């Protein structure tokens, strides 16, 4: 089921990409796919308890929309085997003209379950000196020794004024 959802997401992103059809002198048609170099960032962390790595990259970016993704994994030194003890991922979407955005993320710790978090932000008003937005978040823990936890959620109104 996860593979089907992931495949559908990848297909939707590919379908949303702006393709241009060009034709050469012989009448052969080609898809012109825009290519741009985006900043990607890989971070390593090693300490007395273990090692961790995370990689963040831009997946899609145009004048109106931006999608970034992060994947992470960690291995504790005191555990056995080669599998990572923690794995996770996050997608961040930003609608550039409005400043609105959303995210979805999940982190799985072997033997302790999975944490799922989603959230969204919508700008109500934005000017030179005042900004007002509403945000909503939802989080829940699934599985592990304590079982599935109760949902943790909230809606917040944020205001910023510069004098």
Automatic annotation (TrEMBL):
<dbReference type="GO" id="GO:0005576">
    <property type="term" value="C:extracellular region"/>
</dbReference>
<dbReference type="InterPro" id="IPR005521">
    <property type="entry name" value="Attacin_C"/>
</dbReference>
<feature type="domain" description="Attacin C-terminal">
    <location>
        <begin position="49"/>
        <end position="163"/>
    </location>
</feature>
<keyword id="KW-0732">Signal</keyword>
<comment type="similarity">
    <text>Belongs to the attacin/sarcotoxin-2 family.</text>
</comment>
<dbReference type="GO" id="GO:0045087">
    <property type="term" value="P:innate immune response"/>
</dbReference>
<keyword id="KW-0399">Innate immunity</keyword>
<keyword id="KW-0044">Antibiotic</keyword>
<protein>
    <submittedName>
        <fullName>Attacin C3</fullName>
    </submittedName>
</protein>
<keyword id="KW-0964">Secreted</keyword>
<feature type="signal peptide">
    <location>
        <begin position="1"/>
        <end position="16"/>
    </location>
</feature>
<keyword id="KW-0391">Immunity</keyword>
<keyword id="KW-0929">Antimicrobial</keyword>
<dbReference type="GO" id="GO:0042742">
    <property type="term" value="P:defense response to bacterium"/>
</dbReference>
<dbReference type="Pfam" id="PF03769">
    <property type="entry name" value="Attacin_C"/>
</dbReference>
């Amino acid at each position: 089921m996860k593979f089907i959802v992931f495949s559908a997401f990848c297909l939707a992103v590919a379908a949303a990409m702006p393709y241009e059809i060009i034709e050469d002198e012989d009448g052969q048609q080609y898809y012109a796919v825009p290519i741009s170099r985006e900043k990607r960032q890989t971070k390593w962390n090693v300490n007395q308890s273990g090692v961790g790595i995370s990689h963040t990259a831009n997946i899609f970016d145009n004048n109106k929309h931006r999608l970034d993704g992060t994947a992470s994994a960690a291995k504790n030194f005191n555990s056995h085997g080669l599998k990572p003890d923690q794995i996770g991922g996050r997608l961040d979407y930003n609608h550039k003209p409005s400043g609105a955005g959303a995210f979805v993320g999940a982190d799985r710790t072997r033997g302790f379950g999975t944490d799922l978090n989603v959230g969204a932000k919508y700008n109500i008003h934005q000017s030179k000196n005042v900004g007002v937005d509403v945000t909503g978040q939802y989080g829940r823990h699934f599985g592990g020794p304590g079982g599935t936890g109760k949902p943790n959620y909230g809606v917040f109104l944020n205001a910023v004024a510069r004098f």
